[in-house]
Amino acid sequence: MNPLSNPAGDAASAANASQSPSFRPLYQQIKALITQSLQSGEWKPGELMPSEVELAGRFKVSQGTVRKAIDELAAEHLVVRRQGKGTFVATHAEERAHFRFLRLMPDEGVPHHPDNRVLEVKRTRAPAEVARLLELKSGDAVVYIKRVQSFDGQPTILEELWLPGQLFKGLTAERLVEYKGPMYGLFESEFGTRMIRATERIRAVAADAAASEHLHVAEGTPLLCAERVSFTYGDKAVELRKGIYSTAHHHYQNELS
């Protein structure tokens, strides 16, 4: 049974939780229930969600409790509030989402989308380290993607990606090329996999022969390497990405708070 379809059960759960050592504030319990509904696909990316009043009635809690839960979901980029329109499920197809996971910014001018050139797409067996980071068994099927991203005609990012083969059946080079939106938008709309957070490790590296060829730099040129693991709902790892960045005209930018 979908826990969201049983408000009376929600109230009982809240009462039981208040007597247990693992008690969470009521708004966090409501946040968890809403997240379950997002994960199950009850509300699709980009769709308008029920109003705070409707959700309060559904869960038999105050509107303020629902609002606090929505506040946290909005801060985590799972939902988006639009003044006068309501709360929508966040989607990678939105303009504002395009640069959430791409932190490479131009030294001059405004951020804009790169042009993509797909070099290789294949199904293969997961190497041990890839399997470990994606929480797969060594040798499980993965989809491997290699591409170059260019800004204003200048090759800037050489990327390798590994995706769980079970989740991304049917992903081909042809589909990647013909899809004109962001890659995460494709993953979301056609494979039902939404990236909601990621961890990154960044280090300085020297350009090897492959980076030299694809980024048009001399071997040994200092470059930036970012290794990212992206997660969907339930903290499930669904992408490993290694990006080699040329920073001749760009820099890595993050906001700390």
From TrEMBL:
<dbReference type="Pfam" id="PF07702">
    <property type="entry name" value="UTRA"/>
</dbReference>
<dbReference type="Pfam" id="PF00392">
    <property type="entry name" value="GntR"/>
</dbReference>
<feature type="region of interest" description="Disordered">
    <location>
        <begin position="1"/>
        <end position="20"/>
    </location>
</feature>
<dbReference type="GO" id="GO:0003677">
    <property type="term" value="F:DNA binding"/>
</dbReference>
<dbReference type="GO" id="GO:0003700">
    <property type="term" value="F:DNA-binding transcription factor activity"/>
</dbReference>
<dbReference type="InterPro" id="IPR036390">
    <property type="entry name" value="WH_DNA-bd_sf"/>
</dbReference>
<dbReference type="InterPro" id="IPR000524">
    <property type="entry name" value="Tscrpt_reg_HTH_GntR"/>
</dbReference>
<dbReference type="InterPro" id="IPR050679">
    <property type="entry name" value="Bact_HTH_transcr_reg"/>
</dbReference>
<protein>
    <submittedName>
        <fullName>GntR family transcriptional regulator</fullName>
    </submittedName>
</protein>
<dbReference type="InterPro" id="IPR011663">
    <property type="entry name" value="UTRA"/>
</dbReference>
<dbReference type="GO" id="GO:0045892">
    <property type="term" value="P:negative regulation of DNA-templated transcription"/>
</dbReference>
<keyword id="KW-0238">DNA-binding</keyword>
<feature type="domain" description="HTH gntR-type">
    <location>
        <begin position="24"/>
        <end position="92"/>
    </location>
</feature>
<dbReference type="InterPro" id="IPR036388">
    <property type="entry name" value="WH-like_DNA-bd_sf"/>
</dbReference>
<keyword id="KW-0804">Transcription</keyword>
<keyword id="KW-0805">Transcription regulation</keyword>
<dbReference type="InterPro" id="IPR028978">
    <property type="entry name" value="Chorismate_lyase_/UTRA_dom_sf"/>
</dbReference>
